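Field reference: sequence -> structure
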Amino acid sequence: MTARTSFHLSRRQFAAGTMALAGLGLAGKAKAAGEVNLYSARHYPADEILFELFTKETGIKVNKIQGTAEELMERVKLEGSSSPCDIFVTVDAGNLWRAQEAGVFQPTKSAFLDEHVPAQYHEPEGHWFGFSTRARVIVYDKTKVKPEDLSTYEDLADPKWKGRILIRSSGNIYNQSLLASLVEHHGEAEAEAWAKGLVANFARKPEGGDTDQIKALIAGQGDICISNTYYFARILGGDDAELKKQAENLAVFFPNQQDRGTHVNVSGAGVAAHAPNRDNAVAFLEFMAKPEAQEIFSGANYEYPVVEGSKVSDVVAAWGEFKRDEVNVAALGRNNPIAVKIMDRVGWP
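Structure field:
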C-alpha cells in the first residue's frame, strides 16, 4: 500500500462533479482510522516528503487531492456535509480567510498547536494554522541600487522609483495581502494613495510570477522587484548554474526594519468542517509543527519555519535575522476585499 494518493483536479472535473472518488479511496463518510484526506492547494515537492514522514510516524495513510484554492473550495461547497475532506491546505492568509468565509473549516483546539504556533500565525479561533512563513521582500540590482536607497514599502510610491519597479499583477494573492497589510496599518485612504503611487512607478505591465520578476531584473528591465523570499532562494540554491551566476548582482532587502517590520505571510491548513477522520486531521496538524516537519519546510522549499528554534536553510540563513511585522495574519484576509477594490480603482493590472 502506498503512503499517499495524489492527482491534480481540473476545473471541468470539479465543476461537473465527475471525479471518481472511489478510485482514490475517498468515497463515502465512513471513518477510516488509518487515513486522512487532504485537499491541498500547495504544489511543492517538500510536501511529499512531509506526507511520507507523517505516515511513517503515525501509520496514517495520506490521501491527497490537488487543485487551486478556488477549485478546492468550490469542491468542498458542492460536496456539502458528505465531503470526505479532513484537512484543507493552501498558501497565503488571504486564501485561508476565503476558505474560512466559505465554511470550509471547523475550529480546532490543540494545546500542542497553541504552544508551538505563534498567535500571530494562526486564526484566533483555531480555524486554521500557519506552518511556514515567507517574507515579501525587495530584490534589487546592486549595480543600480544601494541598500541605503531602500527603506520601506511606503517609500516605493515615491516618484524616484518611476519606471524602476517590477511586480506581479493585482490578481496575485501575495500582492493583495501586501496591500491588505498596509490597509491594516494605515487605513484604506492612505493605502490607496500608496497603491496609486506604486502603479505609477511600474517598469512594465505586470506579467508572470515572482521568478519572472527576478529574471526581468536580471535582464535589466527594472532596478528592483517585489518577491517572496523562497523564489529568490530557489535560484540561489538551485541547479541552474547560469541563472545563479546571473543573479550574483542581486540582493535581498527587508523593508520597514526601523518601524513595524517586514510583511510576512503563511502557508497553512485547518480541519475541514465535516471531517470524517477528525482525530487524524488534528494529528496531522500537530505533526506539521514538529521539528522534523518544520526543518523540511525550510530545507526543501526555502520557507521560514513558524516554530521558534527550528533550523533554517543555509541559503535563507545567509540573509540574516530580520524584524517581522507582528500583525495577526488573519487581518490580511479580513482586509482582502478592500485591497482588491483599491487595486481596481488605481488601475493595477
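Note: Confidence is low (pLDDT under 50) at residues 1-25.
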